[in-house]
Amino acid sequence: MTDLPTIRDEDWRYADGEALASLAPEAFGEWKEIALAPGERRAKCLVLDGEGPQLHRVRLSVGEGARAEIFALNAGADYLRLEVEVHLARGAHFEFGGVTLGGVGTQEFVTRVIHAEPDATSSQVVRSVQWGGSTGNFLGRIEVARDAQKTDAAQNFRAILLEKGASANAKPELEIFADDVKCAHGAAIGALDQAAAFYMAARGIPPEAARKLLIRAFIADAFAALDDAGEREAMLERALAVLEGEAA
Question: What is the largest CA-CA distance in the chain?
């Protein structure tokens, strides 16, 4: 039987306790298992939204020299958690770009990237735009095994809070047992850049148009590594549609 998590568990510390209690117990033991063969390259774009608590769990095994990419928009209206666990073989790469958007509820990304062998790389970029009473979360853990020399791993989280009452949380973790590695993480939470907004207003750009341009540029960072220009534009437009439809 699967033990049900609570917000006392570190991996669930920012979750919505009532939402967790409402999920079916079997949901916590369900993982979508995906394996990439050596040298394979696979990219997936996800738009996660809708009503009610949701839990999505993905476990990736990335073979030698393979490349796995996930780009996700999390705009759930209640509690929505996307959890990704990745195991990287020699020379493999994992790319994650995520955006949380919300005016209500909690939107959450949780990642665990395991560098098990040498020469693997990973990059994670998460952007959060919250308003109303919503919360955007990113819990990212990078583990580097003792023999995983020449690892290069990075994660970056930034959040914009459009209104008082909105919040964002980041919990980056690095566990490194190898000596010859490059690992970095960064996190920043703040308001929309007022200096940039003033600069645009001084050049005749209406406030709403300036706001849209600034937010678009902000969330575009998360999808910058997506090679397919059409997919990249579609993800950006979907995110902006959420903002235009919900944000005051």
Answer: 62
Residues 18 and 20: their CA atoms lie apart, in Å, by 5
CA angle 165, 161, 140 (to 5 degrees): 105
Specify whether the CB–CB gap between 121 and 93 falls below 8 A: yes
Chain CA centroid to CA 168, Å: 12
CA distance 155 to 178: 18
For 184, the token pair is 């970095």
In this structure, the number of other CB atoms found within 10 A of the CB of residue 87 comes to 20
Neighbour count for residue 211 (Cβ, 10 Å): 17
pTM of the entire predicted model = 0.93
Q: How far apart are CA 248 and CA 234, in angstroms?
A: 23
Q: Where are the alpha helices (DSSP H) in 11-126?
A: 17-22
Closest Cα partner for 210 from 199, 197, 227? 197
Q: pLDDT tens for residues 170-197? A: 999 999 999 999 999 999 988 877 776 6
Q: Is the dihedral of CA 235, 243, 135, 192 positive or negative?
A: positive
